[in-house]
Fold each of these.
Amino acid sequence: MSEWCPVMTPELIQEKIETRKRNLKIDRKNTTKYQRTLTSAPDERLSSKYMGVTGALVISLVAGFIVCIDLVNFSKKFKPARVKIE
């Protein structure tokens, strides 16, 4: 065989495949695509700010309503008994 056409044994082929795999492998966490998934883009639109404030307000009101109901029930349960004096 000549220098331009080396003998390709199965072991040599497998070694070349493994070498190419190692050279082509990329760590996914070092790509810009992965890094872009970790950051959010700012949204300066007025409508998005109103939506965010409205959503936070609705969640706060619902949570506050539930807490108020619990406080009323809690105060009724631990209210001291009144003794009638005749």
Note: Helices lie at 10-24, 32-37, 46-77.
Amino acid sequence: MIEKMDRPIDYDWDGHTINLYCDEDGDWLAYLLDLPNVSAFGDTPESALNELYEAWEGMKECYKTDGEDLPVATRRKDYSRTF
């Protein structure tokens, strides 16, 4: 189980883009664009981001435990630029 941790002022999303929006019920949803299954809700944008940070740290721990590489953010991928 992951313990609650102090949140850094600047979150480290490993290059992943965050989508943050308010739904029709007034709840905030935050998720990693490349990994939409890593998501969180909150009453405020800050709480949604805090929860997303917890989810991302937990996901990274699962990848590490399973001996798998973390998914690379789309914007960090090296493309050959050829077709």
Note: Residues 18-69 form one domain.
Amino acid sequence: MRNSTASLCVNGGTVLEKFWIGLIGVVVGSVLTVLREHYSEWRAHRTDARYLAVRLTCLLDNFVGDCFEVVCDNGEQDEQGISTPMISAPKFNVNDLDGKWQSLPFEYMYEALDLPNKLTDSNERVSFAAEYGDGFPDYIDFFKERQYQFSVLGLQAAILSNKLREKYSMPTKTYGDRKPIECFIEHKNKFEASEKCT
């Protein structure tokens, strides 16, 4: 019996001890490899999200500026005395952005990808007001609806831009002397108050 026990000892340790040490080494090595791969994927995902957030924020900021110009457009009368808008309706095309949309949190991705749908809906409402509102020559209903719709869209775009800036540690947007957010809120509240009265 002593001989069999002695034969299991090799260089001061048993074969069983060496087996367990080897097994633990393999498991630890595998876990470290998996952790390293997950960390690399997480960093790549984070980098993709930050890149797309920067691109999207720039697009949103331009859209906010375009909405502001529309909201400030009261139109001008042409030679026949008909009020016409001076500023074209803004466009917002998320297809212009390259990047991995799946890298953004769902809430932000949804808000950004839904904005073109909201823009289409707003343009339809403005067209309806132009066609069925008070019409010729001043088109007051058209301009009110247009200013309201683009105030709402401009606010939504500015809010999303601010969320992305906060989430991805980007600097706060400043508008200098222009105050689009305040303008949007003022036009939105004014329109909604006038709608309650009618």
Note: The mean pLDDT is 87.
Amino acid sequence: MTQPSSARMDMSNRAGGLGIELLNQFNYKVWRTCIESYLVGEDLWDVVDGNDITSPEAEATANDEIRSSDAVKKWKRLNAKAEFALKRSISHSLFDHIIGCKSAHEIWKALDKLLNKGNEPPESQLAEPTLTQERQEEKRPSTLKVTKDLV
């Protein structure tokens, strides 16, 4: 039995096996939320968001060689899975922007830099307000003062 053409067309805009719409220039915010949930659910988020971006190879000492070898294999496997999920979830028109990235974290940052047009602050700004943001808040008139003046 063949699928109706509308179903085939719908599937062509979906990430293979992930069930989310392919990332394009217009759906970054929705794509980011969906792919982040997928990566967290697959235990791949740490290699993407920067918590575990360094391969353990550089940190190994002679005494740690056997354990390090296993850690390196694990990191490479997780990074490759995360890279694959990210690459399979973006449109072909965006692929050239990430082709030179060497890790899932680099892909994530490249896509954020390219497509996050003020929709969401970068992750580094979510934790603490910047000095500029604090100064802007100080310059805003107080809501209480405005309400008081109106009465």
Note: The chain has one domain: 5-123.
